[in-house]
Specification:
Layout: H1 2-13, E1 25-33, E2 37-42, H2 45-71, H3 75-79, H4 83-95, H5 98-106, H6 110-130, H7 150-161, H8 170-175, H9 187-199, E3 215-221, E4 232-240, E5 247-254, E6 258-265, E7 273-276, E8 279-285, E9 291-299, E10 302-308, E11 311-314, E12 316-325, E13 331-340, E14 346-347, H10 350-353, E15 363-369, H11 377-386, H12 390-400, E16 406-412, E17 417-420, H13 430-435, H14 442-449, E18 453-455, E19 482-485, E20 488-491, H15 521-535, H16 547-555, H17 560-576, E21 579-581, E22 587-589, H18 591-599, H19 611-625, E23 634-636, E24 648-650, H20 655-674, H21 683-686, E25 688-691, E26 694-697, E27 711-716, E28 720-728, E29 730-736, E30 742-748, H22 763-769, E31 774-775, H23 780-784, E32 790-797, H24 846-854, H25 873-881
Parallel strand pairs: 2-5, 9-18
Antiparallel strand pairs: 1-2, 1-32, 3-4, 3-20, 4-28, 4-29, 5-6, 6-7, 7-8, 8-16, 9-10, 9-15, 10-11, 12-13, 14-15, 16-17, 17-19, 21-22, 23-24, 25-26, 27-28, 29-30, 30-31
């Protein structure tokens, strides 16, 4: 026995347990500075989450309350039944089961789970303090507003994880329903089905690679790109201005453990884009695929069976029931059945084809979703938030590979810059794409929609594996595009290839997007602005970035399409005008448009005149051609050796082209005339956001029209482009001073609160309109010096039972080990099951090991940590796991 114990000692010397003291009470200090930005300070993660949840709910409770309803599959119950709501409810009831969410919770570190539980408790505390009757009008006195718990939070977060994969395909997954048993279709039937498939309009499926309405710009600048030699980061996500994908600014501090500031998506208890003292970072939505389809060969006459490696397999069947409120206001039960293959959920294309593909009796498709098993995203952000260096930040990315659908850039005070698409991507290389297309429709689907459809009948076509990947079927860090430099990296939602055109990234899987192909106008302008700044040719002074010139990259509001073709289009307009016949007796006078284009400053500032003419011309052209890159518009084609500057120039020599451009210009002019918008209206008078009857002129413009600064608003008859639907949201610029103290200025375009009655509903919108930034207070001294500083300390007993032993944590002498009898032989406040500190000196060490050795194989209750009735090797293992750490955690220590 003694020899066995000695053999354990060496391992024990290498084992250091994390501090495990628990608190019976949430205690958080919410320090609020100008513009409603909360700075949460606490001594543990649960309390930190508690303070954050309370602060968030005080400004946006209705948004998360509704998202909780959606993530729980209860929209049709609370808001009334529609087809779309039912589909969403069926799907999230299917995937967000209690069993799965408990598995999600079990995968998290104690710190991450505590933050989530605390956030839910803080949200619920605000609801209890305020009462439903006093909530904002959007959810006042609604029965769907309730206290939430960690399961609700995890359901919301998992819904966000699936945003670029299963969450985009909910309708297709709901479409999948097998026909009754049938004979194999005859040759004539098969040909008819194939003809219908080939003639169908598949265009609605072309944009499934990237989550709808999400985009971004970002720069990370190294020492060679800044005047100070310090790193800099520009973060500029383009997200919706309403709903759960809004951002919320926050500062989270646990002294000595965590100090991070930035912004989170609603319901996320950590910072998604932000900075700490050591590193700043941002994200853009990546075009990499998060899923593939699999073409399954059906067993003839047996639609619930498919072939896999020659065997006949049954589809798994998943019945789901939801409660709905019908159009008469009555409660009803609706049922739906989902089907699953070895690859994933079966889906169908009813809305595209007009009939179920499954009915053909030959093939059906299944979804391979790489993010389905991604339970690492929360842990990923926690480690990023805690990073003590850029190398530590990169390790957090590459060790977890948990980001579900974004690129990352980062920089540090030493002037190092980083780019990476370190995200969850199916492991499909070019060889597999070439050898494994779905044999019947795979090539057609790829050509018509871009969707990747692999042969699902053989395991050889399953996703591959990397030894350094944290999950089967995805690329590991060694096969992900990354770049470290002291120059610069950028991204504007194209893939990795031109993160820095001087250091192109090539040779990666096609699932990350095509390399050496035409880039978007926004990507090109983003790079061009950096090149001009480093050359000092942009009129902004000496070469190299300062924080002010970095901000000008965004708020300069340049329209790159205008720079490329506006002058030539104005000349063409003058030559071919003054009228254009659109047919049907519709003759449009374009003479004013010619003048406006010629005089336009090629920007979309609030005082610019003419942007609407270019915008409507491009929208008319895109409606006709469906080409977001406007490939045929340009005279000089794309040149892979000059990808930043090509294509360029207006294609204006071919008479057919000249006629075409004039037709689309006239269509744009007509649309403006029909909607009562003057061609020479100042941009800020026709693009604006109205809040509480105040109109805020909004600079920026639509993606695809050549803008870097993105604002998307639909044209409203007689009003203009309003309200803003999507675009610049949370914006941050971060650097470090000569003493390496972090310096950050940021802005939240739509302001912190979604409640019109809240004082922080429009205050930053006014700043955005005027291109003013907020200097973020980060140190205690800066926070306390803020002219609008206020503080609130909240406490609350922790009403949870972490170890599910029937004893609430607040009263539990072992909060993480089930100990329902609360046995505490030595009476020190630590239950026996978590108290290997036999000599009560506050540390589990060799003295305790010696004492344990002395009672080995006895029935000494004080040393029987596992409750087996005997002191044995099980108790030794428990002591080993806590060596050099304190006993506990316990909430009953005197």
């Amino acid at each position: 026995m003694n020899q066995s114990i000695r053999l354990v000692l060496a391992a024990m010397l290498l084992t250091v347990a994390a501090p495990a003291m628990a608190s019976a009470t949430y205690t958080a200090e919410i320090r609020t500075t100008s513009f409603g930005i909360p700075h949460i300070k606490a001594n543990d993660y649960g309390s930190l989450g508690f303070g954050y949840g309370y602060a968030y709910a005080s400004q946006n409770i209705c948004i998360l309350a509704r998202e909780v309803v959606e993530a729980n599959g209860q929209q049709s119950l609370h808001f009334g039944e529609t087809t779309g709501r039912n589909e969403q409810d069926f799907f999230y009831t299917l995937v967000n089961t209690d069993a799965f969410i408990d598995q999600f919770a079990a995968s998290l570190s104690a710190e991450a789970l505590a933050a989530i539980r605390g956030y839910a408790a803080g949200y619920s505390r605000y609801l209890a303090d305020t009462g439903k009757a006093n909530l904002p009008l959007d959810c006042r006195d609604e029965d769907w507003v309730r206290a939430i718990d960690e399961r609700d939070m995890l359901r919301v977060f998992y819904k966000l994880i699936l945003r670029a994969s299963g969450g985009q395909l909910v309708g297709l997954i709901n479409d999948a329903a097998p026909p009754a048993a049938q004979a194999t279709p005859g040759a004539a039937d098969s040909q008819q089905i194939k003809r219908q498939i080939m003639e169908a309009d598949w265009s609605p499926l072309r944009d499934l690679r990237r989550p709808f309405d999400l985009g971004s710009n970002m720069y990370a600048l190294g020492a060679n790109a800044t005047q100070s030699g310090k790193g800099m980061v520009l973060g500029n996500p383009h997200f919706p201005w309403s709903g759960p994908l809004r951002w919320y600014q926050v500062h989270l501090t646990i002294p000595g453990e965590l100090d991070v500031m930035g912004a989170s998506l609603h319901g996320v208890p950590l910072v998604n884009i932000g900075f700490n003292q050591h590193v700043a970072w941002s994200h853009t939505v990546s075009p990499a695929w998060r899923f593939t389809l699999y073409e399954l060969a059906l067993v003839p006459g047996q639609p619930l069976k498919y072939f896999y490696d020659g065997a006949e397999l049954d589809f798994e069947v998943y019945p789901v029931s939801i409660e709905v409120t019908d159009n008469l206001g009555d409660l009803q039960i609706r049922n739906h059945t989902f089907y699953r293959s070895v690859q994933g959920w079966v889906l169908d294309f009813n809305d595209v084809l007009g009939f179920p593909l499954w009915n053909n009796g030959q093939i059906v498709y299944a979804l391979g979703d790489a993010n389905e098993d991604n339970l690492r995203a929360i842990e990923q952000f926690l480690q990023m938030n805690k990073a003590q260096s850029l190398s530590g930040f990169i390790a957090a990315l590459t060790d977890n590979v948990g980001l579900p659908w974004v690129h990352t850039v980062a920089a540090d005070a030493a002037g190092n810059a980083f780019f990476g698409d370190v995200s969850v991507v199916p492991h499909v290389d070019q060889a597999k794409l070439s050898s494994c297309p779905g044999p019947i429709l795979g090539a057609f689907l790829s050509a018509s929609t871009g969707l990747i459809a692999l042969d699902g009948s053989q395991s050889a076509c399953a996703w591959g594996n990397d030894p350094d990947a944290p999950q089967d079927g995805i690329f590991g860090a060694s096969n992900l595009p990354t770049l470290q430099t002291q120059d610069y990296v950028t991204n504007s939602n194209d893939n990795h290839w031109l993160s820095n055109p001087d250091i192109p990234l090539t040779g990666f899987s096609p699932l990350f997007g095509a390399e050496q192909t035409q880039r978007s106008l926004r990507t090109r302008l983003g790079i061009l602005q950096v090149q001009q700044r480093l050359a000092g040719s942009d009129g902004l002074g000496a070469p190299g970035y300062t924080l002010a010139t970095l901000q000008d990259a965004l708020f300069g509001s340049r329209n790159y399409m205008g720079e490329l073709i506006a002058a030539e289009l104005a000349v063409l307009c003058a030559d071919e005008g003054p009228t254009v016949d659109l047919g049907g007796g519709d003759i449009v006078d374009v003479s004013q448009a010619c003048t406006v284009l010629a005089n336009w400053d090629q920007k979309q500032n609030v005082d610019s005149v003419g942007a609407q003419v270019m915008l409507e011309f491009l929208l008319a052209l895109n409606d006709a051609d469906g080409d977001d890159l406007f490939t045929n518009l340009f005279a000089t084609p794309f040149d892979v050796n000059d990808p930043v500057n090509t294509p360029s120039g207006l294609a204006n020599t071919d008479p057919a082209d000249r006629t075409k451009w004039m037709q689309h210009l006239a269509e744009g002019v007509k649309n403006l005339n029909d909607n009562g918008i003057a061609l020479d209206a100042v941009w800020g008078s026709i693009q604006y956001e109205e809040k509480n009857t105040v109109q805020y002129p909004i600079h920026g413009g639509r993606d695809g029209s050549g803008m870097f600064s993105i604002i998307t608003a639909n044209l409203q008859n007689g009003l203009g482009y309003t309200p803003v639907r999507h675009g610049n949201s949370y914006m941050q610029t971060v650097t470090w001073d000569v003493d390496d103290n972090v310096q950050a200025e940021a802005l939240l375009s739509y302001s912190q609160s979604s409640d019109p009655a809240n004082p922080h509903y429009a205050d930053q919108t006014a700043l955005y309109s005027n291109k003013q930034w907020v200097a973020l207070p980060f140190t205690d001294a800066e926070i306390e010096a803020d002219p609008n500083y206020s503080t609130l300390t909240l406490t609350q007993p922790i009403n949870i039972d972490t170890d599910s032993d029937g004893i609430l944590d607040a009263n539990d002498n072992c909060t993480e080990v089930a100990n329902p009898a609360q046995i505490d032989t030595d009476g020190d406040g630590y239950g026996n099951f978590c108290d290997p500190d036999l000599n009560n000196d506050g540390l589990v060490n060799f003295i305790d090991l010696t004492q344990l050795k002395g009672v080995f194989f006895s029935n000494d209750a004080n040393a029987d940590f596992d409750g087996s009735g005997q002191v044995n090797f099980g108790d030794l293992v428990i002591m080993k796991s806590m060596f050099f750490g304190p006993p506990g955690p316990s909430c009953t220590v005197p």
